[in-house]
Design goal:
The protein is mainly beta and about 140 residues long. It has 1 helix and 9 strands; from the N terminus they run αβββββββββ. It has one domain (about 25-140). About 10% of the residues lie in helices and about 50% in strands. The protein has a 9-stranded mixed sheet with strand order 3-2-5-6-9-8-7-1-4, with no helix packed on it. Mean pLDDT is about 85; it is low at about 5-15.
Length: about 140
Amino acid sequence: MRRLMLLLAASIVAGCQSPLPAVNPQMAWIEFSTPFPNDKLLMAERLDNQRMRDGRFFQVTPGSHELIVRFDFEVPGGGGMGMMSAPTERLCYLTINYDHFEAGQRYVLEGRSIAFTPGARLYNAKREVVAEDRESYCLM
């Protein structure tokens, strides 16, 4: 039984480390960035209301799309000690709409937080902001 659990755990870890697929030149590629240390995780959740199988990126056809990402970040802790207590993790879902994805182009979706407020910006290859989150929903 112990050997089976070890094998299962190893296969899960190996699946998380699988290489990204080849970039399709007929599609736009969206990768993720979290520039601040308290911003822990940004991953693909839904594309045009369809759940994503691999949360590490989006690859979309040219045109208009709605992206929903999961964004986890730390916020100052609460309780009796206020800012001195341990930080708490916050889980949010952000929605980004962009009408002009271009085939063969790379985009970066950057998630960032300011205190309790999450945000995301979509940048094109020239590092110009082309879209920002229009909606957020947080669980904590």
